[in-house]
Amino acid sequence: MKIVVCIKQVPDTADIKWTENNTMIREGVESILNPFDEYGVETAIRLKESIGSDVTITVMTMGPPQAKDALKKSLAMGCDDALLVSDKKFAAADTWATAKTVSQAIKDHVKDYDLIICGQYAIDGDTGQTGPSVADSLDIPQVTYVKEIVEYKKENNSLVVKKAVEDGMQTVEMQLPGLLCMLKCDYSPRMPNIKGVMKANRAQIPTVGLADLNLEVDQVGLKGSPTFVAKSYRQPPRTQGEVIDQGDTKANVNLLIEKLRDKKVLVS
Amino acid sequence: MHKVNVEEYKGIWVYAELDSNRNIVGVTKELLGTAQKLSADLNGEQICAVLLTGEGDTGELCKELAANGAHKVYVVQNDLLKEYSTELYSKVIYDLVMDKKPSILLIGATTEGRDFAPRISFRAYTGLTADCTELAINEEGLLSAIRPTFGGTLMANILCKKTRPQMCTVRPKVLKRPEPDYSRTAEVETIKAELNPADLKTKILDFKPYQVDTGVRIDEAEVIIAGGRGLKCADNFAVLEELAREIGGAVGASRAAVDAGWRPHSEQVGQTGKTVGPKLYFACGISGAIQHLAGMTSSDVIVAINKDPDAPIFQVADYGIIGDVCEVVPALTEELKKLKASTGAVS
After folding, report:
1. Which pTM does this prediction carry?
2. Domains along chain A?
3. Domains within chain B, CATH numbers bracketed
4. Does A98 lie at the interface with B, CB-CB under 8 angstroms?
């Protein structure tokens, strides 16, 4: 079985600060492997461990050359090989152009895959759109909002997974080849061990650019993107209200109740 | 860059999502309400709801869609559509879009909408804006979709200029729900769908609904009592549950509480959990990380209870009490109980 894990390197959004004119202050902001993708890597490795032999995991990303760090981390965790899809012409791609580029790289350079695993969201863009778009481009089925893989059914060449929906948990069987979008799971992603880190540091990661893909320049990057960011701004903050401080808890909660009743928001 | 003749594309479409009891979900009504405003800014362009169901009567559903603002309802019926599937729903809606050419297609940002919308936009080579919180028509007559990015720290205003339909998924509970007007009627067009069961590559084997301890689901609750790291352990959520039972609310949780395993993911409020907009939101022992705020700041009234006077949650709260949750919340429940006993009701 051949598994492809698609990852993204993202700025740690918890660290982000903005200048007055809304440009991101990059200094001091760490680049990390998108947390949802880290669960994707972990889930792929667990599946490989449960099936045993004859499984390879390729981790890939589209991004600038420094995104190799995220690939190396995934190799250190236990992926077998990596692919960097990188070209200045891919810059400023929206989810359409990203999915087109990633899916073409899979078609041209990974080929006979059985399973593709993505994170449900990237914490910078939060769109959750690239995974399903890649699945559509490759004309394969998908399951989104996956919490765990239950089992691989060799006889059906299918995968049974748990999917979180609005009001409960579904168990879904998907024919392979197919694509999963992972939520955070109930298990934690492993820490790479020394041997893994050394292997990752030695690894030569191949890079493919536009010339290596069966794509036209007007299908990628900003040019290939149907959406256009007209402007961006910071949200006007909700204003701070009042702190109730009457000296003791009982007086505080009684004043709170009075205020909530005045606002007519206490329903019962 | 791919381009289409945008003049050929007319009308505002809203995907009509049904819940497991075959009721129209709230976000569909919110979208129909907003579609009325967009239509007014586009010289009265037609609002169409798109309804996919199994065989059976759809009269009541169409009436409900009309009351909320649909001028027309496309009904696609086939027993293979009785349950949602990525494969068939994407195919049916894509085919309908290609045939009828709407200018705008609005979809709720639910687990269902977010599952199929990117497949349709990819196939149609058109723009899809995720998880919008506001929609308007700009001076060029384009749909201007506003969405939070970077964990809610930055708002982006996104346009789809050269391709159609202009597609968006929109967060539930952010746009205002319209007053239904049951005197309105809608034209109903039934569409025949040619579907092949062999196209189904996924199958739902089992479904386990979440246990709701307080009897109220978080995405439907008028009052939410959410707890975070400040609760210190899973057992302490009992004080929130008691308050929730007292005032008819649901219990929610921050990501920290869910990651710690104290509460299920279904109760998580925030960027990667649920977006909620209740009348009253209690943030108990929640510091107010930006990702959490993104999921609850459209609440009408926010109450923060936290030991740390510098917690960012106080910056968005209408009322704040500085103190230990495990002391303040039981006191609040106690006083509400007393009031109920003395007056017979709280409000």
Report:
1. 0.85
2. 2-224 (3.40.50.620)
3. 6-199 (3.40.50.620), 218-343 (3.40.50.1220)
4. no
